[in-house]
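Researcher: Let's do a round of design. I'm pasting the C-alpha cells now; please hold your answer until I've finished.
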C-alpha cells in the first residue's frame, strides 16, 4: 500500500487508501459497476485485468442488477473471497450516477458484506469520475453511509483510490467529515 490513513470508531476501522484496488487483500473488493456489469470503468477494469476473464464471466452471469443494488461473485484470482459489484450507474450511456444510486449501492454493498459475514471491505468512491458524478459529493455520500451503517460483522472498511489528486481530496473531505472523531491523524 502506498498511503493509508485511519480513523478508529467504536465498532469499525475506517481507512483511506491510495493504491490499486486489485492489490488489496480483504474479504470483499468492491467494483464500481453499471447495471449491466460490463466491467468497463477504471476500477472494474483493474479488477478484471487482475482477476482474469473468469472474473468478468462471473460478473456477466449476474447481470442485470437493479440500480442501487449489488451482485456478489467469487474473487477468482484476486486476494479476496468475493467481489461486490455495486451498480451505482445505469447501463445507458446517456445516464449518469446520482446521489440516490450511490447511496443505495453503498448501503447494499455494506449489507451484502455483513450478510456474508465479512470482516474487511475495500470500496472506491462508486459512481464518480467516469460514471459522471462529482467526486467530492460522491465522497461525502460514501463516507456518510459507511459512518451510519450499523455493522454486524465488518470491522475494517477502506475507501480506495489510485489517483493522487483524488486521494488528497478524499483525505480533506474525510477529515472534515470526521472531525469530531478522537483520532484525527489525517
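Researcher: That's everything. Go ahead.
Model: Designed sequence:
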Amino acid at each position: 500500500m502506498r498511503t493509508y490513513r485511519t480513523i478508529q470508531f467504536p465498532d469499525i476501522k475506517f481507512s483511506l487508501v491510495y493504491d490499486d484496488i486489485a492489490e488489496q487483500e480483504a474479504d470483499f473488493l468492491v467494483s464500481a459497476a453499471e447495471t449491466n456489469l460490463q466491467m468497463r470503468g477504471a476500477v472494474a477494469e483493474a479488477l478484471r485485468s487482475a482477476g482474469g476473464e473468469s472474473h468478468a464471466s462471473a460478473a456477466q452471469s449476474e447481470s442485470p442488477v437493479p440500480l442501487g443494488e449489488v451482485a456478489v461473485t467469487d474473487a477468482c484470482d484476486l486476494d479476496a473471497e468475493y467481489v461486490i459489484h455495486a451498480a451505482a450507474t445505469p447501463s445507458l450511456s446517456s445516464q449518469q450516477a446520482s446521489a440516490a444510486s450511490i447511496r443505495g449501492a453503498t448501503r447494499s454493498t455494506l449489507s451484502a458484506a455483513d450478510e456474508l459475514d465479512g470482516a474487511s471491505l475495500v470500496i472506491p468512491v462508486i459512481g464518480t469520475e467516469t460514471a459522471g458524478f462529482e467526486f467530492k459529493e460522491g465522497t461525502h455520500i460514501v463516507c456518510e453511509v459507511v459512518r451510519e451503517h450499523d455493522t454486524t460483522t465488518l470491522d475494517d472498511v477502506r475507501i480506495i483510490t489510485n489517483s493522487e489528486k483524488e486521494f488528497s481530496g478524499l483525505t480533506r473531505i474525510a477529515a472534515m467529515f470526521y472531525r469530531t472523531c478522537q483520532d484525527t491523524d489525517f
